[in-house]
Amino acid sequence: MRKSLRVFFYFSIWITLALVAVVLNILNIDWSQTNIANGVFIVLILSIIQGSVFEFPVQTIATLIVGGDRRENKKAPADRLTIVLNYNLLATSKDDIDECLDTMYEAFVGNLGPNVSAVLVSATNDEELKKYELEKRDTTRAVIYDELFREGVSFSQGDYESMDSQRLKNVWQMYENIDPTVFVSEYLDDICDKYAREFMVLHRVSRVVRKCGQYQDLMLLSEGESEAYSYCDPEYYGTNARPYGQPLFHASDDVDNVFERNYDYTLVLDADTGVPRGAVTELLQIAAANPERGIIQPAIKLHCKSDDTIFMHLESMRQGIYEPMTNAITALLGQSGFFGKGLIKNRVYIDNVIGTKDRLIERVPVDVLSHDTFEAAILQPLYAGSVYLLEAPSYNYITWNIRERRWNRGEILLAMYFWPNAFGRPMRFLQKIFQRESFNMTKLRTPSKLDFVSSYIAHSALRQMFMKPLLLLYIILHINVHLRYQYASIIIVMFIVLIFPKFATCNRKNYKGVLFETISSICQFTPEALVGTVRICRSWAANISPNVKWIPQRAVEEDFKNSNPFISSLKHLWGYSLFALIASILVGLFLKQAFLVVIMFGTLFLLPFFTGFTSLSPNFKCSCRRQTHDMYRENITDGLQAISTGGIYRSLGTLTGSPFKYNPLIYNEYK
Question: How many angstroms separate the CA atoms of 148 and 184, rounded?
Fold first, then answer.
């Protein structure tokens, strides 16, 4: 009842503000000089825009009332729960593999325990890259073995100060009653070998359902299913269906290791998602106290280094500014969205999202990109804001725009399934026309029924996305409408979006950052009425076109790192600047009272400069190439004096071409 009342008051305030805005919009029009049809159309468009953006002041008010501090979730002992840290990758280069497995290594060793495994599920196609993934896995296993062996010797000598405190508690203390000599000679090798073999790489056979299918198949393998039974029906999925009984993964020792392990939870992660030390234990404790929840959603913290780009620092700053609103709203509504990275309870997920051989469910559409929306609608994630995962912000405006376009395409696909008749049928019709013989008709086996709160959360990105073409339409059409206060409406919209939310987060400590972020947001988001509309059109075209080509973000980053950022920005955005220049001249010659149009074109013209400037580091130098986990890589390339050899480290066999050097003096001393 308490949650129902909170939700009722939240949306009551929103609706009230929206109705007040409609009345004020009507009163603001000089109907004696305005065509009625034009006036009604402007009122309709402006009311939709303002109705959408009033979400921000309502959230701000809610934050001021309930507080934006991080909530401490209730916890319970979780010693018996098992978890797999699941990274998912489709590599196109060795750099992709290095970044992913280095990140997985740090997540694994930072949260090591007897109930923790780490598994990379790879959908990589290239055979050379697949081979490199296994080589990288073996090299990393050797590092894990050696690190644990050294730490185990320190433990046997009582040198606890030099040991990692997490591993001392989770790994070594269970052996404290064993004689040190016996521990080193009879136990330590097996312990190190066991943990090193928990760092695994699985190569998936199919690419059905993309990333979502990768961790779905991992869950099924853990439950004892080695062959495909989901997404195998051509009647629903056409050519996207995979053969029934097809192996889930290519055979390997790692596949055998995962088979029938029955992990309780899967922590789903992207290739660049970091897991801080101790975060896994905290998440499991929260999960143990909330066993009815199918997803525990930790906060996502954007982190960057001092020499990363200004844009990355701005993104990180922006997230920090808006974090209190996220904390407040998720507490108010009692659930959150699923960010595609979070803790999933395997059994609940399988029973409600995938189904069994005898009772298939398959709630996630086979061609969808934003799978997390469907999963959140069914499993209603619990937000655990006191625990966070780490993720790097977009490198600059160009890579941010590429990511936004990919997300927009996913939202359009979502709309096809949320509104199958009003939106889905016209889109399928266009796909059939443009894709011709490559058109593949798909259906959703089990539609998801969203409650009011789940629907509000699920459609949040769609609301923000379609606000941009409406805003562009208003800027163009308002010229033909006589308004008593010409710019009041748009000023209110901009104030609500960019300024008012800061009232809930600005304080003496962060006011300078808030001011800087606000100025940069004006530069970045004022052109969004046009740029965002172009992005939506390109995303829509990608959904109906038979050939979709995306510029890889890594390629864009390399372009900027290897050349002048201002020249690279102009190369990517010159079309916007040229259009803005020509359009501004035409507007100045033929239109009066077009101040809003000029402002939009002005910021659009300066977009390459904004992109080039924010692609610099904070000391106004070209940002150097972003290296992930520098210390780890230095240790490898410098030739670590490793303890393990092919004979000692049984899970590897003989390490051919390994950079690790066996040091017999160290090993003999330890023995």
Answer: 12
- Decide if 107 contacts 190 (C-beta within 8 A): no
- CA 218, CA 226: separation in Å to the nearest integer? 9
CB 210 within 8 A of CB 369: yes
Strand order in the sheet with 199-203: 199-203, 116-122, 83-89, 265-269, 342-345, 295-302, 382-391
Site of tokens 């999933």: 344
CA 288 distance to own-chain centroid = 25
Do 376 and 457 form a contact (C-beta atoms < 8 A)?
A: yes
Give me the DSSP letters along 369-393: S-HHHHHHHHH-PEEEEEEEEEEPP
The rounded distance, in Å, linking the Cα atoms of 274 and 389 is 6
Tens of pLDDT, residues 329-385: 998 888 898 999 999 999 999 999 999 999 999 999 998 888 888 898 889 899 999
Residue 633: pLDDT above 60? no
| DSSP code string of 287-336 | HHH-TT-SEEEEEEEE---TTS-HHHHHHHHHHHHHHHHHHHHHHHHS--
What pTM was estimated for this model as a whole?
Answer: 0.89
CA–CA separation, 110 and 132 (whole Å): 24
Q: Is a pLDDT exceeding 70 seen at residue 648?
A: no
For the four alpha carbons of 165, 166, 172 and 176, in that order, the dihedral sign comes to: positive
CA-based radius of gyration for the chain = 27
Measured CA to CA, the distance from residue 48 to residue 467 in angstroms comes to 8
Count of CB atoms within 10 A of residue 550's CB? 10
Q: What is the DSSP letter of 197?
A: T
Q: Which residues contact 11 (CB under 8 A, 6 or more apart)?
A: 456
According to DSSP H, which parts of 369-478 are helical? 371-379, 397-418, 425-435, 452-458, 460-477
Q: Is 83 helix (H, G, I), strand (E, B) or coil?
A: strand
Closest CA to 265 of 351, 348, 201: 348
pLDDT, average across residues 506-533: 88
Q: Give yes or no for residue 211 having a pLDDT over 60.
A: yes
Please, are residues 102 and 602 in contact by the beta-carbon 8 Å criterion? Answer: no
Q: Give kind and range of the element (H or E) at residue 670.
A: helix 664-670
- Other beta carbons within 10 Å of 661: 10
Is the model more confident about 634 or about 469?
A: 469
CB 13 within 8 A of CB 61: yes
By C-alpha distance, which of 194, 196, 221 is closest to 206?
221
Buried residues in 148-160 as b, exposed as e (16+ CB within 10 A): bbbbbbbbbeeee
Strand partners of residue 297:
383
* More confidently predicted of 452 and 550: 452
State the CB neighbour count (10 A cutoff) for residue 438: 11
Q: Give bridge partners of residue 622 from the DSSP assignment.
A: 616
Pairing mode of beta strands 265-269, 83-89:
parallel
Q: Which region among 160-169, 239-248, 261-270, 556-565 has the lowest average model confidence (pLDDT)? A: 556-565
Cβ pair 122, 203 in contact under 8 A? yes
